[in-house]
Amino acid sequence: MPSVRVSTGDWVRGRERQLVDAVHQGVLMGLKVPDWDRDTALHLIPEERRIIPTGCSERFTKIEVLLYTGRTTETKRAYYDATYESLAGLGISKQDVKIILIEMPPENWGIGGTFPLPA
After folding, report:
1. Which residue among 36, 45, 97, 114 is buried most deeply as judged by most CB within 10 Å?
2. Is the pTM value of this prediction over 0.85?
3. CATH number of 3-108
């Protein structure tokens, strides 16, 4: 049940859905999440309101993923690789991507009126 937030610049205007779909594809392929489990939001930040890392282009894209604890390092690597590959189709290089995984135990999530989540 990952919750994904994507932040990037205005360069993607007109192709927003393509970017959201590419990021979701990385979740599907790398984390093996079912397709119906969707929670991805895109935030566009005007260039004058962001500072990107040295050496990155205007296509710099940050992806923050909140997810349950417990995935293996191999699974996380598979997610990174699947996401980089999916984003390459939009002309976003690996050097222009920052992925941050934020793990927390299931009892810190309340979804659909349940808390804590059933095991």
Report:
1. 97
2. yes
3. 3.30.429.10
